Amino acid sequence: MHRRLGLSALSSGGLALWLGAIAVIAAQNGTPVAVKFLIFQSVPLPLGLMLAIGAIVGVVGTALTLWLWAWAAPGSARR
User: Fold this and answer.
1) Number of H helices, E strands in the chain
2) How many C-beta atoms lie closer than 10 Å to residue 50's C-beta?
């Protein structure tokens, strides 16, 4: 139980560091940035907002992946 709590605290601390870094970058650089991927281009948004969106997509994507792995694992308790 203590090990799980330590891992949770470590991941919360890591997330706090990322959010702090995004806040610092956003405060220092308000220049709009457009992301290009193949033939697509996003609407120009501030760099800090782009980083925040990327971090949120990464956190949600990781959470969904871990949840699906746990759900699909043999012998897992499906409720």
Assistant:
1) 2, 4
2) 19
